[in-house]
Amino acid sequence: MYVGSNDTTLCALRTTDGSTIWNGGAANGAITGGVTIANGIAYYGSNDGNIYAFDITNGNTVWRAATGAAVASTPTVLNGLVYVGSNDTTLHAYH
């Protein structure tokens, strides 16, 4: 299971007992929305106004993009595009 936290990290947890597998991610603000996993990539937004794509297999940031305001929503991945709303009142799409 993958969850973001107020301390700016993305955490991988064991679903059997809740123990931490790893902490990572590259956000510069709290991660208050949900995390979506698709094809080995974790997508999540941050209060720093960015959406992040983080490779869960090697721990590298694949990309990040500025949305214009804090992101508290959970990204959705469909047909190769990542959709996320931000507090700038816009639905953003990335690939």
Task: Please explain how this structure is put together.
There is one protein chain. It is built from no helices and ten strands. By secondary structure, it is mainly β. The protein has a single domain, classed as Lipocalin (Beta Barrel). The strands form three sheets. A four-stranded antiparallel sheet has the order 4-5-6-7, with no helix packed on it.
Give a summary of the structure in a few sentences.
The chain has 95 residues and is mainly β.
| Number of helices, where a helix is a run of at least 4 consecutive DSSP H or I residues | 0
| Helix content percent band | under 10%
Q: In total, how many domains does the architecture comprise?
A: 1
CATH architecture: Beta Barrel
Strand fraction band?
over 45%
Low-confidence segments, given as residue ranges, are: none
Shape: globular
The strands making up the biggest β-sheet line up spatially as: 4-5-6-7
> Can you identify the CATH class?
Mainly Beta
Beginning-to-end CA distance, first to last residue: 23 Å
* Mean of all residue-level pLDDT scores: 93
Please give the number of β-strands.
Answer: 10
How do the SSEs run, as a string of H and E? EEEEEEEEEE
What structural category arises from helix and sheet content? mainly beta
Task: Furnish the topology, listing elements before pairings.
Elements: E1 2-4, E2 10-13, E3 20-24, E4 36-38, E5 41-45, E6 50-55, E7 61-66, E8 76-78, E9 81-85, E10 91-94
Antiparallel strand pairs: 1-2, 2-3, 4-5, 5-6, 6-7, 8-9, 9-10
